[in-house]
Every structure is written in structure tokens, then in C-alpha cells.
Write a structure and sequence with these properties.
Number of domains: 1
Helix content: 55-70%
Largest sheet: none
Number of helices: 3
Structural class: mainly alpha
């Protein structure tokens, strides 16, 4: 239950930040959404129901599936690279968000 609430709070915070006008806030919203997706993938894997996936110590039918953990590691790398790319765009781009008084 606590994990579901944490995922919900992260998604709500991400939506709130992505609806803001500043580029850095939008990027932080994407970061929060990435963390929520990673938690959701780990929760869907159900690793707490089974034993550790060490083939020398645990039988193969009792071991948990390591695929969700691999998905999360891949998602972390992809989210990090997208975050760096978006921060580069925010730093080098023009500031189109402000209104001109002239």
C-alpha cells in the first residue's frame, strides 16, 4: 500500500511540474515520472514473493525473475540520458517563455 501511495505522489508531482511554464520544472517533472515508472516496474516484478535469483544457491523454479530489474536498469540509463539532453536544450535554448514588454 505504501508503494502505491508513493507512486501516486510521484506521478501527481510530475504532472504538476510538467504543467508549469519553466523548462527546468518540466524536466524535473520528467525525472519524477521516470522514478515513478521505475517503482512501478519493480512492484510489478513481485521480487518480494520469491527467493534471490542466484542459481548456485536457489532452485530455478523458486528464484525470482530478474527481467524487471533489468528493465529498471535500462530505464534508469535512458531517463538519465534524456534528462541530460533536455537540460542541455534548456541551457542553450532561447528564453521564449517570458513576455516582451516592448
Amino acid at each position: 500500500m505504501t508503494l502505491a501511495i508513493t507512486i501516486g505522489v510521484l506521478v501527481a508531482g510530475a504532472v504538476f511540474l510538467m504543467l508549469q511554464r519553466g523548462m527546468v520544472r518540466i524536466i524535473l517533472g520528467f525525472v519524477l515520472l521516470g522514478h515513478a515508472a521505475n517503482l512501478l516496474l519493480m512492484a510489478a516484478g513481485g521480487t518480494y514473493l520469491r527467493a534471490q535469483p542466484l542459481l548456485g544457491y536457489t532452485a530455478a523454479d523458486e528464484a525470482s525473475d530478474p527481467l524487471p530489474q533489468a528493465f529498471v536498469l535500462t530505464a534508469i540509463v535512458i531517463a538519465f540520458s534524456i534528462t541530460i539532453y533536455m537540460l542541455t536544450l534548456a541551457a542553450t535554448g532561447r528564453d521564449d517563455d517570458t513576455e516582451d514588454a516592448s
